[in-house]
Design brief:
rod-shaped, mainly alpha, about 160 residues, about 75% helix, about 0% strand
């Protein structure tokens, strides 16, 4: 079962209710708190027991009367606090984020990234030709030493 929806009361009814409650409890002093052990010990016919119940009901009703305004004010206060906290955090960390953005831009413009972009734009034939091209550090045979070695191997094979 769903709880009943809040329906605001008319100001005239609210005034009538509060006036009645004040009239009922104004002449009763020393009333215990509703639901307390002292309240439970009172006889059901004791006017203090009824007065405590009326005060409790009026507290509940009064809280309900201004519930939308109280909730709106509370939510606005939380939103303002969150916005302030966000602005402080953002201002405290703005330098870190700017530095990270600069590092990311630099890494995208890094020569290795440009080289990768160049290679990805090459055709298959261009990549094969690039792979066959000698690079620094590759073994480069000496033409005279290789010719003598090849001649010696041919002579042994014959």
């Amino acid at each position: 079962m769903l709880p009943p929806r809040f329906t605001p009361t008319e100001p005239a009814l609210t005034h009538e209710r509060t006036s009645w409650a004040k009239t009922m409890v104004a002449h009763i002093n020393d009333r215990p708190r509703y639901g307390s052990p002292a309240w439970a010990r009172l006889a059901d016919t004791d006017p203090r027991k009824l007065a405590a119940a009326i005060v409790a009901a009026e507290c509940w009703a009064t809280a309900r009367d201004d519930l939308p305004a109280r909730l709106a004010a509370e939510l606005d206060a939380h939103r303002a606090a969150d916005q302030t906290a966000w602005e402080h955090w953002r201002s405290d960390h703005a330098g870190e984020h700017a530095a990270m953005a600069r590092r990311m831009v630099r890494s995208l413009l890094d020569p290795s990234m440009r080289e990768l972009g160049r290679r990805l734009s090459m055709t298959e034939a261009q990549r094969v030709a690039e792979a066959r091209r000698p690079r620094p550090g590759d073994y480069q045979p000496h033409p005279t030493a290789d010719a003598a070695q090849n001649a010696a191997q041919e002579g042994q094979a014959a």
